[in-house]
Amino acid sequence: MPRTSIADLLSGGDRRSLGRADLVATMVAENPRLFPELIAGLWSEDRLVRMRAADAAEKVTRKHPDLLRSRKKEMLGLMAESVEPELRWHLALMVSRLALNVKERQVAISLLIAGTCRRAQKERRSQRSVGKTQLHP
To answer: Residues 3-55: pLDDT tens digits?
Structure first.
């Protein structure tokens, strides 16, 4: 009987739920050879899979930060391109576990600040449009 893929385990359900991310984190912690498949989920076309893969990967790397060692460029690159808060939160924690040189640390800090500023601007625009809607029914 074929094993269910990590992406399949992480898919479906409600965005407010972590689904089976904890189960996947346990599976990968027990079998680190599954880590590349889990990390591939960070680039899934399915937003739920991306969010849950990030959650599971962050949990796995708490105890096994060495699994990230060869993925520095990938993590920084994804942090640069990602706009989803759920993904960025987990990436920030994972990137903090990487051995970064001075330049890479500066890049990571800049990316975190840029993401925070983008989020704040989006919230301000959203609040302004809600205010206009309330003033002009």
So the answer is: 789 999 999 887 777 788 999 999 999 999 999 999 999 999 999 999 999 99
C-alpha pair distances (Å), 90 with each of 19, 45, 73, 95, 132: 16, 18, 16, 9, 34
Other Cβ atoms closer than 10 A to 118: 13
Closest by Cα among 47, 57, 67, 44 to 93: 57
Residue located via tokens 């800090």 = 109
Query: In angstroms, rounded to a whole number, what is the distance separating the alpha carbons of residues 87 and 66?
Result: 20
Q: Buried b / exposed e across 35-56, counting CB within 10 Å, b at 16+?
A: beebbebbebeeebbbbbbbbb
